[in-house]
Amino acid sequence: MYILTSINTNTSATLVSLALARNERSLAVAMERLSTGLRINAAKDDAAGLAIAKKMAADISGMQMGIRNLNDGISMVQTIEGAYHVALSMVGRMRELAVQAANGTLSEADRANLDAEYQNLKYGIQDLAKNTQWNGMNLIDGSSRVQTVQLHNGSDTGTQDITFNQLYGEPGSFNNRWQNDQDSTADPDIFAATGYVFDGDIQSGDVISMLLDGKYLAITVNADDAFYLKNGPPAAPPFRSFTNNIQRESQPKFEEGFSLSNLADMGVSVAAITGGIRAFTVLGYPILPANDGKTISVTELKVTRGDAKYLTNTSITNTSHSQTALRRLDETLEIMTKTMSQFGSYTSGLETASNSMMNTFINLQQSQSRIEDADYAAETINLAKTKIIAQASTAILAQANQTKQSVLALLQ
Description:
The protein is of the alpha+beta class. It has 3 domains: 1-37 and 374-412; 54-167 and 330-362, CATH 1.20.1330.10; 172-304, no CATH class. It is built from 7 helices and 10 strands. The protein has helices at 11-36, 47-101, 108-131, 223-231, 242-248, 319-372, 376-402; strands at 133-134, 137-138, 146-152, 159-165, 172-180, 193-200, 207-212, 215-220, 253-254, 298-304. Strands 9-8-7-10 form a 4-stranded antiparallel sheet, covered by helices on one side. It has a two-stranded antiparallel ribbon with strand order 1-2. α1 packs antiparallel against α7 (376-402), α2 packs antiparallel against α3 and α2 packs antiparallel against α6 (319-372). The longest helix is centred in the first third of the chain and has 55 residues, at 47-101.
């Protein structure tokens, strides 16, 4: 075999140089991974792995914010629950005062003193509803009949709704007094009477409460009543009577000793419903009588909503009022405790969702780490290996460069 003796081409040195360059690249990769902590620093390192890891990173960041959202929801529910704890203690104290005021051994002055505290507690509940806020939002002030807060958990369609009733609110007031002067003798369904139109956002389930000659009366609004109260009297009969609505109500909220039957004692002809009522007018809950010759005092006419809506206009100034207040307080306690159990279920559900998402978050982070993070044990081995190879390659390259110096001996 003939070997060409040449000095223009040093094949051995070229081969060693290529090996040294490859080793330098491996050394640079090992040092980059050790310095960044990442196995994939560019798409060339692992194109498929990079795509998977980046998608996981987006899911992880969204899930992390979703966990924060759920925790914010827990904080919001706990804020409401705390307000309800205070309200329940106030209602409990009001009931205690009502029981005391219902005792026949007390004087009017004693009941007046008890009622002063009772009214302060009642207004305190209303103030609590107005002032309970979270992140600048009024939560239980009755600005809407129910409040729904959507919590996003970070996935494409993952949301959780929190819907809760209000504690107390007054969505508007009665005004725009109207007069119907048509002759009732021409048509028994047409009344010469005065009424009111509600100015506000009344809804089915709201309560209209009033004092009729000092007697407590409250009726829950249905959908038809809400329409009439918001839109005023119709253009033509038949009109809708206040007394009809009382009869239609499954459980009208009358004061003790006061019922539909003794409305007749106040000038309301309840026996003539089919032929037309000539006292209270129409349109949901008209107020003032006309042709029966008696004047009924209507005061404290309000529309309320929320769990404490039946407490409006209650008092404990006499035994009858106290007994009415007791029934309304018991009903309010039942409503509020049911709402409290709802808050507990919300908190439990949100905590469960947060824990589940945290578990998914941790597992997803571990999966991303296995794909993207550098294995320091392996990379330190690679670093040591490439350093040794680099030193050895440099030494061999020097030897390869020396081999061509033997040609000089032929020239001597």
